[in-house]
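Contributing new records

If you add data, match the layout below exactly. Sequence lines come first and carry their own label; structure lines follow with theirs. Keep one chain per record. Anything else will be rejected by the validation script.
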Amino acid sequence: MKSPLRPQRARGAGTEQADANEQGWFVDEMGEEDSHSQEAYPAEQGGWATASVGAVANTVAVIRWTAWALLVSGPLLGLLALASQPSVTAAPPPAVQRSRGAEGQAGPAGFAALYVTAYIAAGQGTESSLSPYFPDVRDLTLSAKPGSQKAEQAAAVRVKQMSAGYWSVTVAARIPATRGSKTNESASNTAEEADQPAGNALRYFQVPVKEAGSGALVAVALPAEVSAPGPGASPELDYGLAAPAQSSDAAVKTLQGFLGAYLTGGSDDVDRYLSPQTHLSPISPAPYKQVQIVQLAEHGTDEPGSNWPAGKALPDRAQRQLLVTVDATGTDAQTRPLTYAIALEARAGRWEISSLAAAPALKTVPATAGQEGETP
């Protein structure tokens, strides 16, 4: 390799050579090979150390690969650091306690009514008819005659939640009573009087019902006959005092026409009394031949119609909530009282039926979350 230091001087060749020798330099004027120059003037004597092209190339390659390695490993190390962090689990939201109302009790109530109906009709040899309700029926032996008693009607009248998935249901059953058989002394009259209906008796049975998983229900024991439960407290309606219907109240005319068309199916059209957004069809076949408005109770006042005296202009979209009692006379000439919760809305100076409510409005009472108790 040729030396990178070749100072040129203007003096003669001899002088240049002499100066070069004195200063430790050399001049490769004859183009001699680098190996010969290095042998004559080793690097230790020249003052500067030089490196080969191969060594420099190797060094550059190492630096380049190191840089690439750092470049690639940076994101990987970052992802590894994130993955190694402990996971944080969010606390589950608090459970919401819901009051157990009639909706959640419909299943146990219906199940208990069916169970009592099957139990009353069962007898000797038909014990297996209770197996869909009472799993332990295999250990039961009945002595009564099958079908000697039957429930004409059965309905749950009280449901009490004992614990989660466990209820006590009281079922009322209307069972025709029968006269007992006579003794041997009056056997001659037995054929005529025995097993004859002696009126209907309303009897009550208490049934323990348990949820068995997947929505299935089972009876925990046989029914227990109990006395009739006491009546429940009367709810308070969200209307004022009831008062006799007044012909001076423009709403009475609308109510009379609507209920007459709705219940009797007369020549009058129901639609003429309805608001544009309301759609109702009359009862068919019509169960009554005559309807008379008897009394009204109005939300927000004890004097129905007092806020809308005769002659007062009715602003559009004015509203009234009424509880209407009517006397309806059937085709058999028997009169029966009926009560309807009806909403009125004013349009074009007259009252129209805006809705026929499914139930009268109750006064709202603050409910306690998670409260349990008896449902009459």
